[in-house]
From TrEMBL:
Domain called Reverse transcriptase zinc-binding: residue spans: 56-138
Domain of life: Eukaryota
Encoding gene, per UniProt annotation: LOC108808268
Protein name: Uncharacterized protein LOC108808268
InterPro entries documented for this protein: RVT-Znf
Amino acid sequence: MVSAAASGGQWNIRRCRGHHLRAMMACIYSVPAPAEDAAGDRRLWHHGEGNYRPCFSSKETWEQLRSHHPRLNWTRVVWFQQGVPRFSFITWLAFLDRLATGARSKAWGCIQPCILCGEPDETRDHLFFACPYSFTVWIDLTGFLLGSRVSPDWTLTVTSLLSSRRKEIDTCLLKLAFQATIHSIWRERNNRRHQGDPLSPSQVVRYIDKTIRNRISSLRHRKPAFYGEMMQRWLSRPTPS
């Protein structure tokens, strides 16, 4: 309790060496010590500037501890209601360019070309979707939604996904397909790195197609009409004969 750290109207706290602790002690000493006849201690949590409450809020605590930055527009492609968490996480790493691609390992003296097509410089932008292998998967899945705007360029693809001139259902499907494709291409890339059996682009497409159908089916209980229409829209995707 606070009263145990004071006596005779003075703070009675042991000395410390750590600079973090010394900074904390300086803050404590700037507050008058409680009188011995003061009322019992009360625990109050800081909820903002000059706002103390008896209840704890993890949200308010996090807001005060974290570093605040302007919101990035691409976060709408990463975090959305219909997203699959493990896909969103890999997509988030891709946007931050934190995936362990060959370009990053080159800085450690390890040369790793693209194992999907043989391109010497395996970068994030190459994998998604300048690589002929990954672009074949991407255009097969989303060509019917993007039309002439389908592109192997990362920046142009993201710009297209952020466009507001599209129906909500198509936007949701594109974001789902985008994340599922990034996750699947990255998984296939890693699988080949570890001597796994390679999959053809058509096999990856079939896996992603099934994944998206399953995701839509799992959401249908929320808004049957909306997700029913979304399923019909996805099923309208042309498939190779």
